[in-house]
Structure formats: C-alpha cells, structure tokens
Write a structure and sequence with these properties.
The complex is a heterodimer of chains A (392) and B (421).
Chain A (H helix, E strand, L loop, with lengths): L1 H13 L3 E8 L7 E9 L2 E7 L10 E10 L1 E6 L37 H8 L2 E6 L7 E4 L1 E4 L5 H4 E3 L4 E4 L15 H20 L7 H10 L5 E5 L2 H14 L3 E5 L7 H7 L3 E3 L17 H7 L4 E3 L13 H9 L5 H6 L3 H7 L16 E4 L10 E6 L2 E5 L3
Helix pairs in contact in A: 4-5, 4-6
Chain B lengths: L1 H7 L3 E8 L7 E9 L2 E6 L9 E4 L4 E4 L1 E6 L28 H8 L2 E6 L7 E4 L1 E4 L6 H4 L12 E4 L14 H25 L11 H10 L5 E5 L2 H13 L4 E5 L7 H6 L4 E3 L18 H8 L3 E3 L13 H8 L4 H8 L1 H6 L17 E4 L10 E6 L2 E5 L3 H8 L10 H12 L1
Parallel strand pairs in B: 1-4, 1-5, 6-7, 10-11, 11-12, 12-13, 13-14
Antiparallel strand pairs in B: 1-2, 2-3, 5-15, 7-9, 8-10, 15-16, 16-17
Helix pairs in contact in B: 2-12, 4-5, 9-10
Chain lengths: 392, 421
C-alpha cells in the first residue's frame, strides 16, 4: 500500500507544470482567445485566458504554438484493435464465430503500442472511442480511453461505453450462414433483446455475460451504437429503439439526409461517417454534406475516423473535420465535432473536449489553421504530460 | 458531330484569374484564351479575339487539368487469376464509360488518367490513357498517337502484390525470374519478326502476349511498375536496366529509403499519399515526406489516386499532403500536372497552360493547396465537362442519392439536349 502511494505521488510530480501559449486558443467553451494561455498543473487545466490577464507562474515550462485546441476526440474508431499491418495477427476488431457477441470487450483486445495509436496521437487525437468494428450483428462492447502509450487499465476512461451493432449488408454473416438478410438480422436482434429482458427480470440465475451486456442496454445504462447506412435500415434501428425503449447512437448513416425528421424526432445523437469515406457498398450514396445537414436539423452529432479494411488502415478525424469544414460546416462547428460535441456525445465532457479550468489537460498544438494540409501538429499534451513534439 | 460543334464554337476567354501555368511563374491577374480545343493564349496582357465568349474569373484560380497516372475508374476488372502474366489483356476491353467514377474524376479536376487493369499479378495487362471527355464509348475517351493508335502502358507489379499459389510466384526471386523469362521470350520473338523483314512466310505465328511485351521492349508502351518496398524498387530498376524498357515506378512507398538509387536510374516516381501508414505490410512506412525526399534527390515526382484506394474527388489532397511532408509548392503542383504528363509521354500536349496545348484546365475557388478550395469547373479539349453550379454535376462532387450509380442512358440524352439548345 505504501509502495502504491509512493508511485502515485511520483506520477503526480512527473506531470510538470506547463503553460501553453497560443496566438489563437480554441477553448471550445466560448469564443477563441487571441494571445491566449493555458496553465496546466498536476495533469489538470488550472486556468485559461488572454496572456495579458493570466500571468505564468515561475517554474512553468512554456510551450508556444500558432493555434491551440483541446486534444481531439475521435467519436468512433477501431484504432488499437485493427493493427496497422493488416495481417491476421494484428486484426482484433471482429470475431466472426457468431453473429451476436456483446460479451466481447474492447479492453481485452486493445494494443496501446500499435503504430496507428501513435499516428493519431501525434496528430493531436487524445481521446478515442474504440472497440469492435462493424461487420457482425453485435460485435462487442466499446470503450473510451486516452491515446497515451501505457497499459490500457491506466488510460481507460469508460470501460464499457456502448454495445456495437451493425444493421444492413455490413452485418451479415458469410454466404450460407445466418443472418443472411437484414430482416433476419433484426429478428435475431429482437429475440436476443427479449431474452435479455427476461434474464434481467429473473432474481436467481446463472450469470450470462452476453445477456448481462444487453441487459445494460435495456436498462438504458449504456446505448446501443448501431452502424447503419441505408435510410430504410436507419428507420429499422429507430423502430427497435422504440420497441425496447433503449438508448441509441446512430453510426455512419450515409443516407441520413433522407430521414432527418425521424432521426431528429427520436432524439438520438449521430456519429456521422468520415466526410471522405469511400462511397461504396451500403455507403454508396453518402454525401460530404451530411454533417452540415445534421447541423441544420439540430441533430446532435460528432465526427469519426471510422473503420478501414485496407489502405489507409485508419483515417484521421482531424482531416475528416477539415473536409466537413469545406463542405458546409463552419470551421468552429467542424472543430466542435471532434472536441466538445464528441465528448458530450460520449458522455465524457466533464473531463475532456474543451479547455476549461478543472478539466483534464489534453491539448493539441498547431503551427497554423489545424485543418489546412500544410499545417503541422507541433505538440500534444495528455493529462498534463507532453506526449508528442516536433512537426507531424 | 462533336468535332463539328467544336470547330464552330467561338473562342472562350477567362479573365482576371490567378493563373498557375506550371510551365512558368504564376500570373496574378491573367487571361487564358481557348479555341478549337486548344489554348491559344495565356498571360497578363492578352488580346482577346473579337466574338470570344468571356468569363469573369476574378478571385478564382486556373491551373492545368490534373493528371492521374494510376487509376481504376470505369469499373475495370481486376487481374485475371488464370495466369500471372497477361500482356495480351487490354483494359480497353473492360471499361464502362458510364461508371459514375468517371464523373467523380471530372469533379476532382482530373482531365487525363492512366486506367490500369489489375492488380495482384506480375503483369495485369495493357493500360489505357484516357481524356475525361464526356463520351458514350471508350473510343471517344481514348488518347491516340498521331497514327491513330490508342495510347497506354503496361501494368507490372512486384513485392507481395503478385504473390500467391501457382500460377502466381511464391517468392520475390521467383517473381523476378518469371518476369525475366517472359522478357527474354519477347526478345526472341521480336528478333524473329525483325529477321523476317518483309517476308511474311518467315514470320513466327502471331502471339498476342509477345506482341504486348515487344511494345514494351520497343518503347511504345511505358511499363507502370507497382512497387512498394525498398528492395522491390531496386528489383524493378534492375529489370528495367537489363531489358532497357521505359518505366514509371508506381506507389514507391519506400522511396525515402533509396532516393539516390532512384534518381541515378532516372526513374520517374508516381506516389500515392494516404492518410496513415499501413493497411498492408508494404505500406507500413508510407509517409508524407517521401515526395520531398525523392524530389530533392533529383527524381521526377508525380501522384496518383489508385481510385478506389483513394477517391478521385480528393486527388488534390495529394499535393497538400506532399507539401505537409516538405515538397515545395511548385513541385507539388508540377507533380499533379506536368510530371504526370511526362510519365504518360503526353508532355507536348498537356500538363501546363501554354499556347498550342490542349485546353485541359480546372477553375478553382481558391488556392489549390487549401483544404477549403473547390473545383468549380473542369474543361477538357475546350469543353466544360464539370460545372459545380450545375446540380447534376454537383451530385457527383458532393455525393448523395445516386451519386455512385452508372449514368443512365436517359440522363445522358437529357444532357445532350440541353447542350444543343
């Protein structure tokens, strides 16, 4: 016990006191601050404001950048499970042995040392919602964590964030196996939710991990994240949510523009597909303007890097937001979709997503407009520690 | 009919634009005049011919049409698994010109593309160089030499890409041996044809596979060599030297590791810039700085989409990402246009805005290297093939319902009627 206390003390003191100065500081909690400074102490943000009003105490290390933003929040990725080499040994994002496996947990599959985790971290992404990917009716439970290169138990923020489901062709089993059609998928899902409800109602029961996870969905403790693209399948997801009175997060939604009213009426948030996602398969009708249309319809949404099965193995949520800013969103709306709005959607906005006193000291530093190709990410701070420097 | 319409159409002049000719310095307030499908004048002070249709392009940027040196638009087939080497296979025979990806390429500002068959094979077959004209047949899109023959290269690959069970090679050395064997056969075939001279009775039986390879040996077809890893790049250079064929290195992910060897071999490099490293073993070190490293070593650097690996609508990102990695602005824009033209041996016709060249250009809303910039119009041979202001075209640019569907015959007819009004 004493040893543990000592370790904690050492960890705290290793987090140096830092002042980050930016020509422009996007706090995402009010207007951007020109000539701003962010003070960091013991892993938390101590204060934010104009440099003229907030003096830097002695002994603080000062970092400088043209633009400072909160550490970026990727609302949905598969990084850490889908390895950069794309070989069987490093692909942990999908288990095809059965269509419904909500008992699988991301925390048991995540590799913090994968090169893609490093890649996104060096580009400013500090928080990710990751886990089992689309490709099965229910592929597992997702988690939310920091992108620090450290054992997952130290970096995880939410161990079981959502149960990941897929509706439509993307979730079908291989040819000849069940489910082979969307209607069958829905029938299986409905039957499993009914079983989970019966399970939850029993007092004495042997523990069933699969039904445990779905019972948490039924009790509205965690949402069901449904990856879905076709408008008819989006409506099916909404129908299921209503039938079982569960919380939903809609994911992907290439054809959301066709069903904006029902989505808005249902009140569920959306993690919209990457702006530059491949317009192929079920997502063939995707539009680069969907984020902007969701915004106009006042549907809460965030952006994501999504899942890629080939080259590139991951997209970068920063680039996807930049593309969204070129296709209907304002710069600040696009930035919000990868910071505070993403944090809010994930339920971690008390800790991350904006630069405010008391929040985790997660920051990204840039040498220009973060969205421009020519700009570099020049520094990343997570929990008050500088985890990346240099030009990326 | 198209040719007649072209001949009758009046000259067109864009005025007040920031013009990036690529062949020379940028012109802050310039005019470009086109007539009969060709550029007739470009400059700061240009006399606009009487009767010219004028467009005010103040605040806009005009640059040459983009050249994509490696694409798979047109729904072309992948490699035929029946054999590892297919020099007789012509991608020309498999292009669907109603594939929406052609419209998307136009929306991305691409005016010329090298459409390749494959991949996954040592030799996937003959490629075709196309102009992104509006056309109903591949013949209308094909680029031709002065003798009327269709232009194209030959697609080769090495590394892990062509590996597999027999008849594909199982190892790198076997792959090189199989390629070498075919080139030697082609040399022998060529020698027999040459020896026969005008005596048809002495000609060997026609062999389409050998004919394709002889075109590579004779320099009528550029070898487009898919290669990623540093040692595979050197193997490609070695083969090219041994059989002295013209070639372009395609992808070149590990180019950063052997830049001096590439430059010394005068090997043109067409790069694909992807968001993140990896996705397959050979792309694990693919990075943004490679373009700048190769350029500084003295190599010719161009870019490609490999559509659908990357989407043609985002082709300009290649220049932006290369710039991020340290390539100069001038070379990034050169790489998107002139370098590609050189790699496809079209440098006398396209790739820059100069009087006498084909009127292939794009009108941009702003700087080509800014993420916020849109392609407003794409012109090929003096005809507008993409107009962002036209809702029909905008669908392909932005996406939406039907944006990936083949153009239907009816839609096409409607377009023609509008044009003739």
């Amino acid at each position: 016990m004493r040893a543990l206390a000592l370790c904690l003390l050492m960890a705290a003191s290793a987090a140096a006191q830092i002042a980050v100065r930016g020509d422009l500081v996007y706090t995402m909690a009010g207007a951007p601050v020109a000539n701003g400074v962010v003070l960091i102490r013991d892993g938390k943000i101590e204060g934010v404001g104009p440099a003229a009003q907030l003096s830097v105490p002695a002994g603080y290390r000062t970092l400088r950048a043209a633009v400072v933003t909160p550490g970026l929040v990727d609302a949905h990725t598969v990084v850490g499970l889908t390895g950069w080499l794309n070989q069987p040994h490093d692909q942990e994002q999908i288990e095809r042995s059965a269509p419904l496996q909500p008992e699988l947990r991301a925390i048991d599959a995540y590799n913090p040392k994968d090169e893609l985790v490093k890649f996104v971290r060096e580009m400013g992404v500090t928080t990710i919602h990751t886990g089992h990917g689309p490709g099965a009716l229910i592929s597992g439970q997702t988690m939310i964590l920091k992108t620090v290169d450290a054992p997952v138990d130290q970096t995880v923020m939410v161990r079981e964030a959502m149960v990941a489901a897929t509706l439509g062709a993307g979730g079908k089993a291989e040819a000849g196996k069940s489910p082979g059609t969307t209607a069958k998928m829905v029938a299986l899902l409905r039957a499993e939710l009914i079983r989970a409800g019966e399970y939850a109602a029993k007092k004495e029961k042997p523990r069933d991990l699969r039904l445990d996870a779905l019972a948490r969905v039924l009790s509205r403790e965690i949402p069901l994240m449904v990856s879905v693209h076709r408008s008819r399948d989006i409506l099916t997801a909404l129908r299921i949510a209503k039938e079982f009175n569960i919380r939903l997060v809609l994911d992907g939604v290439a054809e959301a523009y066709d069903v904006l009213e029902p989505i808005k009426a249902a009140g569920f948030p959306v993690i919209v597909h990457p702006t530059m996602a491949r317009a192929a398969g079920e997502a063939e009708n995707l539009s680069m303007e969907t984020a902007s249309k969701l915004r106009q319809a006042a549907v809460p949404f965030a952006l994501q890097s999504g899942f890629e099965s080939y080259v590139p193995k991951t997209r970068l949520v920063l680039f996807e937001a930049a593309a969204a800013a070129a296709h209907g969103l304002t710069k600040e709306q696009a930035l919000a979709a990868i910071t505070i709005d993403a944090a809010r959607l994930l339920g971690v906005d008390k800790r991350v997503g904006s630069l405010e006193a008391g929040k985790d000291a997660d920051l990204a530093l840039y040498d220009g407009d973060p969205f421009e190709y020519v700009t570099h990410c020049t520094g990343v701070v997570i929990d008050g520690k500088v985890v990346s420097e240099g030009r990326h | 009919m198209a040719a007649a319409a072209l001949a009758q159409s009046p000259p067109v002049a864009f005025t007040g634009a920031r013009i990036i000719p690529v062949s020379g310095p940028e012109i802050a307030n310039g005019t470009i005049v086109i007539e009969g499908g060709k550029i007739t004048a470009v400059g700061a002070s240009v006399t606009i011919p009487a009767g010219a249709q004028r467009f005010d392009a103040r605040g806009k940027v005009i640059m040459p049409g983009l050249v994509d040196t490696h694409s798979h638009i047109g729904g072309v087939d992948g490699g035929d698994a029946s054999n590892a080497i297919h020099p007789d296979v012509r991608v020309l025979d498999s292009i669907n010109v109603r594939d929406a990806r052609l419209q998307k390429a136009q929306a991305g500002g691409i005016t010329v593309a090298n459409v390749m068959p494959g991949s996954g094979l040592l030799n996937s077959g003959q490629t075709i160089y196309i102009k992104l004209r509006d056309g109903k047949t591949i013949d209308e899109l094909a680029l031709r030499r002065s003798d009327g023959s269709v232009m194209g290269g030959m697609k080769f690959a090495n590394g892990t890409n062509p590996r597999g069970a027999s008849p594909r090679p199982g190892t790198r050395a076997k792959a090189a041996a199989m390629a070498r064997e075919q080139f030697i056969k082609a040399q022998e075939y060529r020698d027999k044809v040459r020896a026969a001279g005008t005596d048809a009775t002495k000609l060997p039986p026609r062999d389409l596979r050998m004919e394709g390879l002889v075109e590579v040996l004779d320099g009528r077809r550029v070898a487009h060599f898919h290669t990623h890893r540093h040692d595979d790049i050197l193997t490609a250079l070695r083969l090219a030297k041994e059989f002295s064929f013209k070639f372009v290195l395609q992808h070149v992910s590990d180019g950063w590791a052997v830049p001096n060897e590439i430059a010394a071999a005068k090997a043109p490099c067409s790069l694909i810039l992807i968001d993140s490293p990896g996705g397959k073993i050979e792309a694990k070190d693919n990075n943004y700085p490679t373009a700048g490293i190769l350029d500084r070593a003295g190599a010719l650097v161009g870019f490609h989409t490999d559509d659908s690996v990357t989407d043609s609508r985002w082709f300009l990102r290649s220049a932006g990402l290369a710039l991020r990695g340290g390539l100069s602005r001038e070379k990034a824009l050169y790489g998107m246009t002139m370098a590609g033209a050189i790699m496809l041996e079209l440098q006398d016709r396209i790739g820059s805005l100069e009087a006498g060249k084909d009127a292939d250009f794009v009108l941009l809303s702003g700087d080509p290297l800014s993420v916020y910039t849109h392609v407003l119009e794409t012109w090929v041979d003096g005809r507008k093939v993409f107009d962002r202001a036209d809702p029909k075209d905008r669908l392909y640019a932005e996406g939406g319902y039907g944006a990936s569907h083949d153009q239907s015959a009816m839609l096409h007819l409607c377009g023609e009627e509008e044009e003739e009004r």
